[in-house]
Q: What sequence folds into this?
């Protein structure tokens, strides 16, 4: 499932990705900072669901919603706004918006919206054991984390946690931790140009720069330095 995320605030885009990805790890998330970038994305692939900020420079979220609906009549659209404005709500209904969320986003409200569109409900029904493991990863990804110490924190057998995690999330525990750290590294590389690549690696939990750079390039096809210079 291809999901478009459009907001002119990079931190908001990162928040959406961080909140949505654990719930639906098989969704393909495509961020854009404005309507122009969003339209460029949809030229190359079909979009099934879009989260759109209502107020952006240039094309507004509602204008973009109307264009998306014209191109993909079956697309589902969620409008996100910092203002609870009745006129916005009316216009949203007119263009066929499915949901309407307000900033700051509340995780439980976003989760309810995501549930509605999840293709595989199993990803929305993690066991308490897996949820606790995910929360630890999200809180402590910058620390030394492995399956054994996380299993110890939540008082379960590591083999049992490994099996449940893989079954429910669709990735092994170590794969998920690595992917999450890389996502956090991408955010730091974009948002804090003063940090060296070595500093970024350390802040997201990689204790060896070479391993960080090799892993980053393997997953993204470019080095951390190239990623930063490209400005993606």
A:
């Amino acid at each position: 499932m291809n999901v478009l995320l459009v907001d002119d605030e990079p931190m908001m885009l990162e928040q959406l990705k961080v909140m949505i990805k654990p719930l639906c790890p098989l969704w393909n998330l495509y961020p854009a900072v404005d309507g122009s970038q969003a339209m460029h994305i949809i030229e190359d692939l079909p979009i099934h669901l879009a989260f759109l900020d209502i107020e952006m420079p240039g094309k507004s979220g509602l204008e973009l919603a109307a264009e998306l609906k014209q191109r993909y009549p079956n697309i589902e659209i969620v409008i996100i706004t910092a203002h609870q404005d009745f006129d916005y709500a009316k216009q949203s209904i007119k263009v066929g918006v499915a949901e309407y969320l307000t900033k700051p986003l509340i995780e439980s409200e976003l989760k309810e919206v995501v549930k509605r569109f999840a293709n595989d409900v199993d990803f929305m029904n993690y066991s308490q054991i897996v949820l606790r493991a995910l929360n630890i990863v999200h809180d402590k990804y910058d620390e030394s984390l492995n399956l054994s110490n996380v299993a110890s924190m939540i008082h379960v057998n590591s083999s049992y946690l490994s099996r449940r995690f893989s079954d429910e999330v669709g990735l092994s525990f170590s794969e998920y931790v690595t992917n999450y750290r890389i996502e956090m590294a991408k955010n730091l590389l974009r948002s804090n140009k003063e940090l060296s690549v070595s500093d970024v690696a350390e802040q997201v939990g990689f204790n060896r720069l070479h391993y960080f750079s090799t892993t980053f390039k393997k997953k993204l096809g470019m080095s951390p330095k190239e990623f930063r210079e490209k400005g993606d």
About this structure: The chain has a mean pLDDT of 85. The longest strand covers residues 76-81.
